Amino acid sequence: MTERSRLNKLPEDILLRILVLTEISTVLTLSQVNSHLHAITSVKQLWVLLTSDLLTRGLIDIPLEDVSVMSSEDFKAEVKRAVCGPRTWSPDSEDITAPLRRYTVPLEDDRAFSAVLLPGGKYLVLHKHTDRSDTHLLECWDVRARRCVWAWSRIGATFSETRFTICRGTKIVASLALIEESSSQLLLLELDLDTGHYREISRISPFHPFSRAFQLVDDYFGCVCSTDMTFPPKIKLLLINHQTQQYLTFDYSITATDICIVPGYVFLTSTRFEPGSVRAYSMVSLEPFWQPLAEFDPNNMPSASALAPSSVFLVGEHIVRADYSQSQPLELSFAMDQSLLRRESYLLQFTERDANQHVRMVFMLRLDFSSVQGPRCVLLSSVTSDDHVDPAEQAIEIDQWHCRGGYSLSPERLSKEWITVMRRKDCEPKQFKLEDDIHRARFVGLSPNGGLVVLHSASADIFYYE
């Protein structure tokens, strides 16, 4: 008896229970096998349960009030849009770009100069100027209720970096890198967006962060920071567990590139002169190296670098040099997204730049943690950006603004008439107009969930496209 016939003979309620535990990619595949399985995989309650996990992890934006009226086909369309990007954004599409959903947050003034849509799409964080040039203000707005739920500022303090965790319920954690006169510090806050109350979890001072590799994922905060302001700087990779109030550090070479945190693992890249590779350290293997955060001393930080990595993924073996010298110094950075279609899988984008920061190659890979033998890394695509990007625009930060739908946008690409997005897998650009009021926009950014955030003088608009 074949596996297909066995599935056909299972009672519908049993089969639905099995499908709830499978990956979305498996459900989509089974829906194309025959009419019976297509009917089973089209049951609305199945898709409500499948997408509830994506909502919890902040991987998809569906208004909760819309869930009850959505069909199974609507749920499938949301998943496809999150995986592949809006259909009208494709460089191959001739369709007119029109918003599927739009939310407007009314602002009391025009002082906002950047915005971040938090994972899940419910809250928008605005970074604002104040009457004082040395003081910034953070405001968090409930997008659909159109009200400010939390605000924070400190006289004489500006923010060099801010990050927020996924909102599960009403509580999130915020990391603020503050600059106050000549000093700097890291502040971790726990926020209740229902009441507007917050409490300080931890504080590190002095704190000298580098802008890249600034992350806040679940219980962990990670960044690249220097121990002092000497030159050349003494640099460390700092990892904090704010739940247990512990920290550890890795030695960091000035030629290294990045750090990335995912549930259960920390990833570090190699130096630019070595063959491209990523070292993965499991959180379990790091347990002996944790130190009390209360004893943190920037001038004396024990290092876990001597620990052998749990896995090493060779990206260099996939690199095919373009028409430039192999001996030319290269920098390899990466961004990592959870896969919507497969549990325990991540999508990696590697961006290779030359010494002038010109993008040379972009690689897309899948990292699979489902095997008992250990993580596996599979190359999905690679592209030489020189073949697709105009030489005058080679310095575009292709991975600076990445969204779940596989498209990127650089804020510098905003004009009075057009917005340009870049398809990440092949660097193909697509220009489109944002209705008739783009000339009023002062900031445009893509959220990790695929929403396009536009700041105007008196409002912040969030667009979702078909």
N-to-C span: 43 Å
Query: Can you summarize the main beta sheet?
Result: 6 strands, antiparallel
Structural class: mainly beta
Question: Whole-number radius of gyration?
Answer: 23 Å
Number of strands: 29
Helix content: 10-25%
- Report the CATH architecture of the domain at 3-84: Up-down Bundle
Write down the overall geometry.
Answer: globular
Low-confidence sequence ranges: 321-327, 387-401
The total count of helices amounts to 7
Average of the residue pLDDT scores: 77
Task: From the 3D structure, determine the CATH topology of the domain at 3-84.
Answer: Monooxygenase
> What is the highest CATH level, the class of the domain at 3-84?
Mainly Alpha
What proportion of the residues form beta strands (DSSP E)?
A: 35-45%
Detailed description of the structure:
With about 475 residues, this protein is mainly beta. It has a domain at about 5-85: Monooxygenase (Up-down Bundle), CATH 1.20.1280.50. The protein has helices at about 5-10, 10-20, 25-30, 35-40, 45-55, 65, 70-85, and strands at about 100-105, 110-115, 125-130, 135-140, 145-155, 155-165, 170-180, 185-190, 200-205, 210, 215, 220-225, 235-240, 245-250, 260, 265-270, 275-280, 290, 310-315, 330-340, 345-355, 360-370, 375-385, 405-410, 420-425, 430, 445, 450-455, 460-465. The strands form 7 sheets. Strands 10, 11, 12, 13, 14 and 18 form a 6-stranded antiparallel beta sheet that branches. Strand 25 and strand 26 (about 430) form a beta hairpin. Helix 5 (about 45-55) packs parallel to helix 7. It is globular and about 70 Å long. It comes from Favolaschia claudopus.
